[in-house]
Amino acid sequence: MNGFFRSHARPFALLLALLGLLYFWRLGDHGLLEPDEGRYSEIPREMLATGDWVTPRLNGVKYFEKPVLYYWMSALSLRTLGETELAARAVPALSALGGAALTYVAAAPHGPRGAFLSGLMVGTSLVWFALAHITLTDMALATFLTLAFYGLYRGVTGNRRWLLAGYAGMALALLTKGLIGVVLPGMVGVAWALGTRRWSLLWRAFSLPGILVFLALAGPWFALVMLRNPDFAWFFFVHEHFLRYATLNANRYQPGWFFLPILLLGFLPWTGNLLQGLRDGLAALRSLGADRRLREDDEAPAGPGEEALFLLLWAGVVLLFFSVSKSKLVPYILPVFPPLGVLAGTALDRILADQDRRRLLWGLAGNGAVCLLLGATLLLYPHHQDRFAPEVLAPVSLPLAAVLGAVGILPFLAGLRRKIGGAVLLLCLGSLAMGITFKGLFDFYGQIRSAKGVAAIVARHATPDAVVADYRDYDQGLAFYLKRRITLVNDPGGFGELSFGQRAENPDWFVTPEEFARIWRGPKPVLAVADPEKLEEFRRMGLTFRVLGSDPLYYGKTVVTNQKTEALP
């Protein structure tokens, strides 16, 4: 096996092949999950339908919560592969593959085996793997930030041509999710210069060609969108950045320690190796003084302690930045995985090189403890929730619990028998098996969190001239599946994330319940999607309706019509 890791070509190709198959196998088999997948699939679909590649729109109104790059990539995917779930998820899957590949590149100076382990750890870790299958902007952001961080690091410590990649990564991250694409690399760079006492690093990070690359990539869209939409700047830069970060406006508050358990659980099945990597990284900081003494000038390459400090700051500053924020969601933690993967993967590589059975067992014990804890939770969960009968969840939870148990126990047993290489091989195979088994969880969520079934009922009955309405809700996948605009019914100010676009353009497909009642009594056929309890409001308003069908798994969502006889397309 040592011959396989003699050069980078074969390990890198194997990593891409394994993760590519893992991500894309059955990627399009389940419906779009509400609300995020519906939203981030519909916006690029509307771009293709309207031909407007400058102003993002959702359900026909301006939508400026995110920049445009993710929508462009997804629109190209939809145009190439068709308007399907597979095409909608191809961008996060490819982004996840790219992020794992960049992790390999970042760890490559430590040797092919350490680089392979680093990339595999990131690519198969639970949170990274899961979000590779969900249509969100965060995976693309994490990959572009990885390019930015590593490009800038390599550019200031070695080959300055890498600075172009670093500046390009910042521009792409800015176009994907906003100012954090520049703010986070800047914060880490300043903190690293302070920690190493190499202030010249900040000057070396300055690159006129890099700035030109940055402006060429990021400048045109921001200029065009602000020229066409004078209301863009305040909403995007103030409301979506400063107010969301510093206030509770987004209703996403979590305590400051929120991301720590997410990180430990989300790095499964490599959590013990993560802790060992952090320990080794902190230990390497002791060589910072030696790095400075051995360096003949400020432009010399970074030493081991300086590299470890950069990786720790990369992960730590990003983690701290989002922990302080008043708005927290699980995907925000993705950018910390590549640097932690480098630390953990190279630590495991050193254990293999030293044949250090004691350290191997400590890492495997950490992995096993978290795997078994999650497996036990999955075994108990079906009996401690009230939405589904235990036998409905058991076919999903039992295989997951079994695989987690095997991944937690078998490598440790191999380590006890002094099979060090075998234990690591079992752990690598177990990480892939865990991902394959977790595909069943996506199938389950595709039934209980997707509007696909309700959309199919609407599609069977809606005529081209019919009004399709969502009553006091917005099931975002409806528009994607039906390829038509949805009339939204709610009280004034009750349109959530679409309120900005609704106020800016005041379209006639955003209506109050009273206006909807008039439409319902009018001559046009109307089909409405509503929660079962909301149908009581129909009765109170004196609206007669006929039930066309419902999806019992998707919250019992029901489709009703104002037509007394069957309406056929």
From TrEMBL:
Keyword presence, RNA-binding: no
Residue ranges occupied by any Glycosyltransferase RgtA/B/C/D-like domain in the UniProt entry: 66-221
GO biological process: lipopolysaccharide biosynthetic process; response to iron(III) ion
Superkingdom as given in the UniProt entry: Bacteria
Membrane disposition: Multi-pass membrane protein
Localization: Cell membrane
GO molecular function terms attached to this record: pentosyltransferase activity
InterPro entries given in the database record: Arnt_C, LipidA_mod_glycosyltrf_83, RgtA/B/C-like
Keywords: Cell membrane, Glycosyltransferase, Membrane, Transferase, Transmembrane, Transmembrane helix
Keyword 4Fe-4S on entry: no
Entry's transmembrane regions: 12-28, 86-105, 126-153, 165-194, 206-227, 257-278, 308-324, 360-381, 393-416, 423-442
Predominant place of localization: membrane
Gene Ontology CC terms, in alphabetical order: plasma membrane
Aminoarabinose transferase C-terminal domain: residues covered: 455-552
Family annotation (PANTHER family): MANNOSYLTRANSFERASE YKCB-RELATED, UNDECAPRENYL PHOSPHATE-ALPHA-4-AMINO-4-DEOXY-L-ARABINOSE ARABINOSYL TRANSFERASE
Protein name, per record: Glycosyl transferase family 39
